[in-house]
User: Fold this.
Amino acid sequence: MLLYVNKKEERRKKIKLFTLIFSIIFFILSNACYLILYLHKTDQTLTSYTQIKQSSDITPYTPITIYQTASSETKAIVIPKKLNKINTINIASALKLSNINNAIPLYFTEDVENKDFLQKLAKTQNLITSHIKTAQSVIITTDLKTILPLIYEKKLYPKTLTKQTLTNKNLSILLDSKFPPISAPKTTLEKEKYALEIFANTHSKELKQLLNKQNLTQIPFKKQDALLKNLSLCIQTTQQTICDTTTSSSLINKISKFIPKIALDDTIQKIILLTSFEEITPKNFNKSNGLLFRFEKREALLLPTEITETPFQTVKQKLGINPNHSNKLMKFYQFKTVEINYNDI
Assistant:
């Protein structure tokens, strides 16, 4: 019995099988090549880093308790140990409410750490203070135990002061001297520096772990995303300063490349984070910034601490170029830095 074989159909089946196998192999190889080529490369930068606000990040309001007699005569006030601007406004209000006619002296107990400042605070309210405690004194303390005997003796009732607002001009001046208002960053570089300061406060420990050759998986997952973003960075040791100003590779990738360049007898001193680079000319350079020089495919930089009287000549010399030579292809950029002292982490 003869079997009929359709050679064309068999050939089509072989072609389909070959195509399928080739497609699978091509897919695997192309993805592997893409992974190797683009691993740790990102267009996300940390110069726009923002921290997720948590309830613990908000300036706390600590209640202030006034202890009064049945006839609403104030005999004692319990204030928070640590002062901030919000608490201090409420303390000023509590002092004023406890002494309507300004005739009763205020006595601050020994446990009050900011006694001198609080006495100045009382003066802005035209209140009098005394170093001697009398039966008429209003006692100001941070420790409730100090006034417990008085509470039992006079049968005092607690009254919690609600949040107050600032109305006194002299008080406002005093508060600004004690708690200077933070001026908002205005320029692009100032805003980026502020973002990097937040990043440094949040992730300095993780940066040190990476420099100590710890793996990314050993770092808390919630912090890994930021470390996979891009950032120009320098590592300053006792023997050298290593920098990477590339704009595509991740922070982790940069650090992993730094580690082999640090000798065993060398010691890391600082981690220096760099903002983006703003193109400038010698006329509009701010000497409080760092300076980056690029010429053809070469570059050199001066950190803000390295700026000389003639920074444009100095940075050219770092590339072995005549400091007086000029060329249209020469580009200069300024930047700001955030320094992290390695031993303070």
